[in-house]
Amino acid sequence: MRVKHSSIPYWRLSGFYWFYFASLGALVPYWSLYLKELGYAAQQIGFLMAIIMATKIVSPNIWGWIADHTGKRMNIVRLGSLLAALSFIGVYASSVYWWLVVVMVVFSFFWNAALPQFEAITFNYLHQQTHRYSKIRLWGSIGFILTVMLLGPVLDRWGAGVLPHVLLFLFAGIWVSSLAVQERATGTSHGAHESLAKLLKTPAVLALLAVCLLMQMSHGPYYTFYTIYMEDQGYSRTLIGQLWGLGVFAEVLVFLWLPRLVPRIGLRLLLVSSLALACVRWWLVGYFAESLWIMVAAQVLHAATFGVYHASAIQLIHRYFIGRHQGRGQALYSSLSFGAGGAVGSFYSGLTWDSLGPQVTFAIAAVIAFVAMLVAWVWIPKAEPDEKPAVHSS
After folding, report:
1. What is the reported pLDDT for 179?
2. Is residue 392 in some structural domain?
């Protein structure tokens, strides 16, 4: 039986992802560079970057609880997006360190409210067509690519001082795009009324959450210091932007292939493979940064270390957290991985970057990814009963 796709607002969902990840394409690669131009040291930069991640530990769970009890997910997305844009204006008031700490805490608390709830809404629209998620999410990757590649030459010419203007425009775009998406009720499913506490005691769920935490910890040096590291190696900001863009372009390609790969290979094997390739990637970045071609190869591996990883992990989250737990499932995924994992990753890389050096810092990241791979291999089940070839009509 062919499933009709007319009820899925493809372009409106994709538009939100475009703006959200376009803002990430400006914030993640270049915010540390902006902070460096303000004169801050590596530990201070690591702490400020960690704030963005650390608020994800608290924020998504608070907003997820509200969403699951009110059912008004899009209202939360819109409110969070608007207040994030308004609070970010605070960076124009002062560049004093502790003021920036306060601004980033407030901004991040609201900014991190939006994506987990929007992910739940997207999956509610997809319903039994979850294999189509990657084709919607890839527009976020395209937004990231365009932003990171266009900003590189701009920062080369005018300096990092233009970055806050670009970010404010993109944050406003997130809010505007959220206005076009309507609420979508959560579907019912067996087990939807199982207690969250009981669900969290399940070995597979615990293992998946631990893997997500460790994977984002391993990304800490990359997201915090990659741009600075490449610049120290003699790469121009234009070329660095192109390397960032290359990684996400590879991610887009894998998002296009994933709807066919998932039924054939399975989510578990895809997840384990992405973790193994993360070990390789961080080792290459740490010890072969002077070689452009090896850096190109390392960035192509972003297709696995983010594209395959994220698509596999988030579909497993959606599979394990059903019914009324969907919002909190997405919130836990965001808070433990991008939140706690990202914060610890940024923090430890800030501590080790100057004291132990970039090579050791990336070696630590490789070891963390290896541990995550072992956890996934041992404790995440080999197959799920509904992993079967999907019918495509696009």
Report:
1. 95
2. no
